[in-house]
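Tutorial handout. Part one gives the primary structure; part two gives the three-dimensional structure as tokens.
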Amino acid sequence: MGIGRNISQYAYEHPQKPAIKQINGETVTYYELYENIKKIQTAFVRMTNKKNIKVGILMGNTSEFLEVFFAVITLGGIAVPFDPKWRKRDIRHVLESGQLDVCIGSRDFLERTGIKQENVMLIDEIKKDVQTDHHEKWEEFDEELFYLGFTSGSTGKPKGYMRNHKSWLESFNVGEQIFGYGKNDVILAPGPLCHSLSLFAAVHALHIGATFYLLPVFSQKETLNILLKREATVFYGVPTMIQALLQMMKNEEKCIMNNVTIISSGAKLSYEARKQLKEMFPNGQLFEFYGASELSFVSYVDDEIFKKAPKSVGIPFPGVEVAIRKKDGSEASFNEVGEVVVRSNLLFSGYFNNPIETKNVLKDDGASIGDLGYLDENGFLTIVGREKNMFISGGLNIYPEEIEKVLKERDEVEEAVVIGVEDDYWGQKPVAFIKWKETAQHRSFNALKRYCRSELPLYKCPRTFYEVDEFPYTSSGKIARKELEFIVKGEEK
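Part two.
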């Protein structure tokens, strides 16, 4: 057992098989991948004999990123990817708090972030100068840590979450079972490798001997071309990416011959987006899954589940148990909202150097990241919001996601976000931010107000509406709700 230990086998059995395809036409074969990993391993071994070495990876979406990642984890080390979109204070925080033993980076990354070169080993110099030692057998690992990921830090300092080999290996098995892909597939996940979704897809692909299609950055044009040309068989993305692709698909013909598997996560797809995807790829498969960096896979929706429970996030993955707990810790009844608690072998190992936060999430009866939802009589899970997004108006709890769903039912609305802002009378009041569809002919906040009043209790109806051309996003593709408060306050960040 151990993530990536089979790469050496693939290098001998299928040396010329593409491990990594790149948009410029360049390919890294499994033999080349293995040899490059060994070079970097040799550099680490010569540098230190320390177990569980923590290595900061300061690179963008490159093949070298993945080579360093596998070199670290197959030696029993812990990989710590850096996000190029972090603010300087976030970078300093991770450098200081992460207790890193060494950092490896690219010149391009250092130039973009302003990190001093003397504190970082350059990847091109390592690969040029190091002669490879022979590693016949790579190590086996089980519950040893291999990955320390950090949140984007949009609402505070980045928080590190730890994963062990076993949790991801179990997740690989579950993903293959439900999504149905394997070693013969070409997997495209065009998000940043410093984030868990794209990293998971890339590492999974190389672990099973498949091909990973690597993009330096997400490009809707390049991504769409890859899908239309059937150069990828599996696509991982977040709804914001998918929405961008759909904007470009309007004038494209149906891709009947493409049986691509589309896997979406991060938020629920709108009904319209799902419909458009099915029309564009009628022979493809579409999955949505609910999960988190701390939880891995929790529940999923396929076409059949969507027909039965379109507003839900589906049923639990194999081996995953979901319970709904009330505030007193007792189990909620069917259709009763409470805290979503997850039990599985896919969970993270805790937050780095943060026992209090770890204890808040990893509890005796399972793990909870503060999501609120309910289970119906058929076992379908519906998420109503996040506890941290909830606010109180006039003494009543309001879950923004519920209001957002109503707003997005309108044909003229492309995206809607609701937050609670301070109010002298109500304590907090709901405020809505609207991005109109480009094709929308009727853009009326009064019409939205009337619709909300017809679908929601009055206390949940937004008091004020703001129009936005674009929403601020975190580097993981989620809307940065905190930044919207500055619009209300009339301030600039």
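Part three, for discussion. The two ends are 47 Å apart (CA to CA). Residues 264 and 288 are 5 Å apart (CA to CA).
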